[in-house]
Amino acid sequence: MAITVLNVKGMSCDHCKASITGALEKISGVDKVTVDIDAGIAIVEHQETISDINILKEAIEEQGYDVEEG
Fold first, then answer.
1. SS3 label, residue 30
2. Cα–Cα distance measured from residue 55 to residue 52, given in angstroms and rounded to the nearest whole number
3. Is 42 exposed, middle or buried (0-12, 13-18, 19+ CB in 10 A)?
4. pLDDT digits over 7-54, tens only?
5. CA–CA gap between residue 69 and residue 3 (Å, rounded)
6. Helix, strand or coil for residue 65?
7. Contact status, residue 8 vs residue 61, Cβ threshold 8 Å
8. Pairing outcome for strands 66-69 and 2-9
9. Which UniProt keywords apply (predicted)?
10. What is the C-alpha to C-alpha distance for residues 63 and 51, in angstroms, rounded to an integer?
11. Domain boundaries, given as residue ranges, for the chain
């Protein structure tokens, strides 16, 4: 199990949280997603098979947010 923390810019409400969580949970190998709006982060617990973190970043960016690895 691996944990990746992503800094997400532009989140402001529960809808933001839900869209990011939903996008990440659709990715094969993602086990758990925790989004903290106040801290501006998404914590993704995933299988080691996800070695390219860009897959996670792109899923969030497709929802309209800017992302940096934390």
1. strand
2. 6
3. buried
4. 999 999 999 999 999 999 999 999 999 999 999 999 999 999 998 999
5. 11
6. coil
7. no
8. antiparallel
9. Metal-binding
10. 21
11. 2-69
